[in-house]
Structures are given as C-alpha cells and as structure tokens.
Amino acid sequence: MNTEKDFSPLTPNIVRALNDKLYEKRKVAALEIEKLVREFVAQNNSAQIRHVIQTLANEFALSLHPHSRKGGLIGLAACSIALGKDSGLYLKELIDPVLTCFNDSDSRLRYYACEALYNIVKVARGAVLPHFNVLFDGLSKLAADPDPNVKSGSELLDRLLKDIVTESNKFDLVAFVPLLRERIYSNNQYARQFIISWIHVLESVPDINLLDYLPEFLDGLFQILGDSSKEIRRMCEVVLGEFLKEIKKNPSSVKFAEMANILVIHSNDLIQLTSMTWMREFIQLAGRVVLPYSSGILTAVLPCLSYDDRKKSTKEAASACNHSLMKLVTPEDDEDDEESQTKSSPPGDGTPSKKEGDLNGKSNLRISTGSLVYSVLCSSDRSAVTLDLDGIVQVLDRHLHDSSTGMMTRIAVLKWLYHLYIKTPRKMFKHTDSLFPMLLKTLSDESDEVILKDLEVLAEIASSPAGQTDMSGLCDNSDSKTVLHIPGGVRDGQPVTDLSPSTPSMNSYFYKFMINLLKRFSLERKLLEMRGAFIIRQLCLLLHAENIFHSMADILLKEEDLKFASTMVQTLNTILLTSAELFQLRNQLKDLHTQESCALFCCLYRSWCHNPVATVSLCFLTQNYRHAYDLIQKFGDLEVTVDFLMEVDKLVQLIESPIFTYLRLQLLDVEHNPYLIKALYGLLMLLPQSQAFQLLSHRLSFLVLSKQDKRLAQPHIDYSELLQHFDRVQSKHLEVRHKRAGRFEHPDRKL
Fold first, then answer.
1. Angle between helices 448-463 and 533-542 (to 10 degrees)
2. What is the 3-class SS of 558-578, one letter each residue?
3. Rounded to a whole number, what is the largest CA-CA distance in the chain?
4. Which residues are CB-neighbours of 734 under 8 A, at least 6 positions away?
5. What's the gap between Cα 647 and its chain centre?
6. CB 318 within 8 A of CB 269
7. Residue 494 in 3-state DSSP?
8. What is the pLDDT of residues 79-94, one digit of tens each?
9. Region label for 374, one of left (φ > 0), alpha (ψ between -120 and 50) or beta (otherwise)
10. What's the whole-model pTM score?
C-alpha cells in the first residue's frame, strides 16, 4: 500500500500500524481509530465518521494486501465500538466490507472477519436486524468452513445473533423466509445443522409465527430428515415435533392444503414414519380438506401397508391414514358438480354463491414428482372440496396391475374399490369397464383373503342399481363365442318359459361377470380345479345363489367346449349338493311344487345334461325318481369311461351323506318309491365290484320292489322333452369324442 497517500483524518502512524504484519501494532492503531471516532461523535461530525469508515473499507478491508485487509477489519470494529448506540446509522458501511472478507482464501483473515463482525453486532444489537438476511447468508457459508478456528468464531457470532433475535420483536420474518427456503436445500451437513438450529430458535420465539410459513420450507425439512448424520436427523425430528404440536394446538390457522402433497413425495425409509405420522394428523385435523390430494396420499400410504414387523410403526401409521382417509368419502361425493352448486345456492337466486365464487377464484399449484403430478389447491375454504376420484382409481388400478404389490396392499386396494362403489356408485361405474378385466384377473391371486375382497367388489358391481345399462352389446368387448342369454328372451327361436321370476334382478354387469368368470375357468383349468368351488360358494353368499346357478346354467347351455361344459357342470353340481351356502336353494329344488321351482329345475337340467351323472343326481335332489330311472336306462348307450364310473362312485357316496337323508328314508316306503329303488339298482348295475358297489348293494338288499310308483309327476315339467334334450346333448358329446379319437387314442381311459 502507498503510505504516502493522504488517508486523513487517519494519521500516517495509524496507517502504518494498520498495514503492519504484527497483530499488536494493528491493535494499537485500532485504539487510536476508536479515540479519533469518539471525538467525531462528540463533535457530531457524521461526515468525518463516514469518511473514516469508507477509508477503512475501501483502502484497507478491500485491499489486495492481506495485512492491510486485517488492519481494515480491526479498524472497522474499532469504529463500531466508538460509535456505540449510533453505530446503527453506519451499519451497512461497516458490515458489507466485513462480509466480503468471509469469502477470503486466507483462513486467518476469515477468522478476523468473524471477530470484527462479532464486535460490530455486539455493539449494534437490535439495530442489525434490518441487515439480518446478509448476516445469515454469510454465517451459513462459514458454518461449513473447513478451518476449525473460523467455524468456532462463526459459532460465537451465531449465538450472539440468535440472542438478539430472541430478545427483539422487530424481526422481519417475511423477508427472511425466501432466504431460508433457498438455503434449506444445502447438502452440506454443517450448513444443514446451522439451518435447523435457526428454525428451532425462530419457532420458539412467541412473537414469531413461523407456522404460517411452514409450507415454504417443509419440503426442505423432510429432506434434511433423510440426512445420513444421526445428530442432524435428531435435531430435525425435534423441530418437526415442535411444529406438529403447534399444528395440533392451532389447526384453524394451518395451511393443510399447501402441505399435503409435500408429505407424500418423500418415500425415503428414514422419512416415512414421520411423514406418515404427519399425514395421519393432517387427515384427522383437516378432514375433507385433504380429499383433493387423496391420490397422492394413497400413492404414499398403500405400499407401507405391506411392511413387515421391522417397520411396524410406519405400517401402523399408514394404516391409520388409510382408514381415516376412507372415512372422509361420503355419498355426497357421488353428486355431480351441478347438483352440488344447486344445493349450495339459495333457491331463485341467479347469482353464484359465495362458496362457488371463492372456488372459482382459487389458484392451483402443481407439484411434479417423477411420473406423478398432483394438484395443490391453495385455499383455506374447507367446504368446497372435490374428491379426486379419477386420480384415486388410477392409483388403485396401478397397484392392482403391479405384480410386486404386497398382499396387504392388494387387500387395501380392494377395500377402497368396494368402499367407493358403496359411497359413489354413479361416478365409479364410469371406471368399471377399465377396472373389470383386472378384477377378474385378481381371482387368480394366491391369497384367499385377496380373492374374498375381490369377490366383494365384483358382487357389488354386479348387484348395484347404478350398474343398470343397455343390455345390448354386453359382450362386445369379449372374444368369447359364448352368447349370453338374458332372462325374458328367446332360446332356439322359442320363448323362454323356464325362468324363475323369484330371483332378484341384477344389473348388466352381473351377466358380464358370469360370462367372463366362466371364460376364465375355461382358460385357467387350474383356477377352476383349485379355487372354482371356493369362488362360486362365496358368490352364492354375496349374491343370490339362484341367480348364480340360473345364469351359469344358461351360459353353459351355449358353451361350445363340451369337455369344459361337462367339467363345469360337475363342479356346480358338487357345490349344489354339498355346500352349506346352497341349503336354501336345495330346499327350493327338493319340492317342485311351484312354477318357479320347476322353471329353475328345467333351466339347470338343460345344462346338467352335459354331465349324465350330474343330471341323475339333480333328479335325485328334486325327487324326480322316475325320470332318473329313465336316464340311467340310457346310460347303456353312452361311452363308459373310468371318469364316468368315478362320478357314479362319488354319487353313491353322496347318497350316503346327510344331504340325501330324505332319499334314504323314502326307501322305507317301497310302495310309493319303486322308481327310486330301480334307479339305485340301475346305478348298482353300472358299478364294478368296488366299495361303492358293496355299499349300495347292502342298502338295497332288504328292499322289495312294488309294481307301481304312486308319486305324481309335476304338471309343469315336460319330461319327454327333457329326455330328448338329454339325447341331443349326449350325441354332441359323442361326436366330439369321436373327432378327438381320430387324432389320438386314450385306451387307458376306457374299460
């Protein structure tokens, strides 16, 4: 530095000492500057004071020479000490050059800058608050300084500044929040620690309502919560815990809408428990305000439901969120927007309601996270909220399609779908066509509990009045060749007379469901074998059993795959004869005293003809013993295979079961039941010498046949036509077997 230059009012001795490399000489110069400035203060000579500060700043603190910069820093501190309470008038000139030195490459100089600023702030106290942002910005950089002395000095300055903020009621929070929002995304651990400590301090000051600005930096807090440092995570948890307590105390002033989606975009394992806890509280406190963000919430919550015990707390919090969110959906959400507006507007008033006007004036913020985009409604109006049904269905459908989705998550998804069909059926049926294929596919799930929930959803779809649609074109989307017969139509060109008017009406999806269920059984024989009976029995509980059997029988009547039709009839027949769920239907068929029961019998009979033994068992169930005898006589014309004899064997076992107790008791009345006995003897003649043969032979050995069966035939049933139908169906089966035999033989399957 040119010492010959005029630095008045600084004397040459002061200038020389300020440029000296020894700290002690610079300190002596600082004392001289302090004395000089005090004189100017006493004279009220602000011009000279400002000239001294500018000289120290420009010629020394900002000099290229390191010793001069050190001298300038200590000189500026001396000026502040001399000014005392008047230092507030010159703070910008005092602070700016010191902050510039925070970026110096020399660690010793950065330390002296901290020391100088500490002295300046200590003297000015509350007067520095208008310059808080630049001070905070400088300190946030020094918090990550690699030099321990500089870091120690910055910590002293930081504590002093926190004390000043805590004592003052003039802190400008509005001006500070943008800087906080920017700095909170720092990845440096020391900087994060610095940020968290300041948020904690500001949150504890009664006069500073930081909660109002929480949406501005909540995302950054959750990112810090995922830090690898345990200490930083602990500090962040404390801060978030304090905010959550404040939210619970003052829910009316909380901007739930602006924070809802911030919580759901964080899926880091370290963050999830806290975000789920916050979301649970948000849903309970805000209620329907969070409904527009349901899709985002479910995206975050549903995967957590399949966590194991290692993440038990997160799973329980997510489950609580899921349950609380589901309860927010009400039948009012099924109303159209026009209906909602009509209800909210006074009658006869053409002007929009205040609520509607507020809604139209809302601004929307969109947050994009990966492939998902959520809308954030920036409004405090809690009543005018809309359920994001489309978004919810999209999320639920995506989880059903994802093969990696856990069992508990799949169950929760199906519970949601069922709940939505109950609460918002009209709007949900707009999505049914897209959901239906996946719901059918879910029937192949490995979990029985998942299948049960899936069947509940399908049953609700099939029985809901909201599902009534035009029956024409019902099978347009199906590539099945099965033609669905709708009750009330025609069959083979003739009016249908064997429909049961006692069955409750189902909507169009019921028949679509039955067609596609049978088609799925046809394509997945393992599903039919392993779960077919389970699925059908559960459907009989959820829907009307008569409807299930009536519709399936009608569909199977047109089935072109005769082998599948026979297998399916055998399955249905076993369910009909053995399942407790079918008790009422069995009683209805046992006594054919009404036209409805006769119509049901005829409908089942026509399809049961695909399986001769099943047809006979149906006749036994309905006490059509003479017709059963007539059918058994025709068995001599059929191809008797091992499978056929096994079915006869099973029928004999069934006759010995509680289901046919009434039949066995009727054997006591030989006079009135000769054809029952003849039919049983017919079965006996079909069986080889086996355990079943011995069982039936022993039971029949004490009976004496009468000449005549006095049981009256049912006037509503044309038995000769039924026999002709049986012959036609069996002829088709025989023709198919002959064609198949032309391709390959199965000698081991014949006797």
1. 40
2. CCCCHHHHHHHHHHHHHHHHH
3. 148
4. 638, 639
5. 47
6. no
7. strand
8. 999 999 999 999 999 9
9. beta
10. 0.78
